[in-house]
Design a protein that fits this description.
Strand order of the largest sheet: 1-2
Structural class: mainly alpha
Radius of gyration: 33 Å
Strand content: under 5%
Largest sheet: 2 strands, antiparallel
Number of strands: 4
């Protein structure tokens, strides 16, 4: 059976390293405002460490999404051409993606790579039970384990969760009402920031033409945030802190990347895209990134046109009608 111990050791090492670093620079180990900030900051900078490592993958994700967006007109043509023949449509689309070197799955790759980190932190924090006998697992010392198991955020232990039993709360020395309030607020913040990260990307890149891609976008936008309302009750508070921090980091990182690699836009007017060529990067400017209106160039006055003779009309002789000259 495949073992995830290497992930648990890696997560523990990053957490303990950051905790030692904050302790070394003078962050109080004891509780301040009901919070052990050295452990909270250790979780926050676990996010920073992972996101810095995955940043090149995130940039590849954005470039892949731009490539997929540029192919949308061709995808729409294939859908019209093979309407009703789903098998042929899928083959043609896969051939198009292969030819253009576009990967539809690249958009989800950063999220998939972060799943092991999330599972590792979930497992490590779930072990922070003072009743555990083996406290030195995954490279922890007894003192580090005891310090982390008693760490709190606004008097709620980071190892506690919304659904903690009375026995678990008693071992952690926590108040059930306080844990539920802190965990409940954090779950709502987690849901809200998860929705905003998906919405930010969709508003910038637009809805996909491919039905499968559109379904994935809807799942990311609505399905995942709603699922957190239930699953959030089993997450330790420390894991929710990790998730919220990760979402905030994503919002800032996406804003930077979207400015550096602006999304592609096409002219919405029918028939105008053919004359202007393929999709071009969207121009970002003006207030709140709204496009500035183009300057109006005053039209030059044109000389009045003189009506010509009608077709078939007899030419007029300008000399006709003048009096003849007398001969002397």
């Amino acid at each position: 059976m495949f073992s995830l111990d290497w992930i648990y050791y890696a997560i523990s090492w990053i957490l303990l390293t950051w905790h030692s670093a904050w302790d070394a620079i003078g962050v109080p180990v004891d509780s301040v405002l009901g919070t052990n900030w050295a452990w909270i900051l250790a979780i926050v900078f676990l996010v920073v460490t992972v996101r810095v490592i995955l940043f090149p993958v995130f940039v590849k994700q954005i470039k892949s999404q731009r490539a997929m967006q540029a192919l949308q007109p061709k995808v729409k043509e294939l859908q019209e051409k093979h309407k009703g023949d789903r098998e042929t449509l899928q083959k043609e689309m896969m051939e198009l993606y292969r030819k253009e070197k576009a990967n539809p799955l690249m958009g989800c790759l950063p999220m998939f790579l972060q799943i092991p980190v999330f599972l590792g932190l979930f497992h490590v924090l779930r072990r922070l039970d003072p009743a555990k006998l083996n406290k030195t697992l995954y490279g922890w010392t007894v003192d580090q384990f005891d310090s982390a198991s008693s760490a709190k955020i606004f008097t709620a232990p980071i190892a506690g969760k919304f659904g903690s039993t009375a026995d678990e709360l008693a071992r952690l020395g926590a108040n059930g009402t306080t844990v539920k309030i802190i965990a409940g607020v954090l779950v709502l913040v987690m849901m809200g920031t998860t929705y905003l990260t998906s919405r930010q990307m969709i508003l910038k890149t637009g809805w996909a033409e491919d039905p499968q891609q559109r379904m994935v976008q809807r799942l990311m936008l609505y399905g995942i945030p709603l699922s957190l309302l239930i699953s959030g009750s089993i997450f330790p508070i420390g894991v929710i802190i990790y998730w919220v921090t990760n979402n905030l980091f994503t919002l800032g990182q996406q804003q930077w990347v979207l400015r550096k690699f602006p999304p592609l836009v096409t002219n919405p007017k029918a028939g105008s895209t053919a004359s202007r060529g393929p999709a071009q990067p969207a121009k970002i400017g003006g207030f709140l990134n709204r496009a500035k209106p183009a300057a109006q160039v005053p039209a030059k006055p044109t000389a009045p046109k003189v009506a010509g003779p009608k077709p078939g009309a007899k030419p007029t002789n300008p000399k006709k009608g003048r009096p003849a000259k007398r001969q002397g």
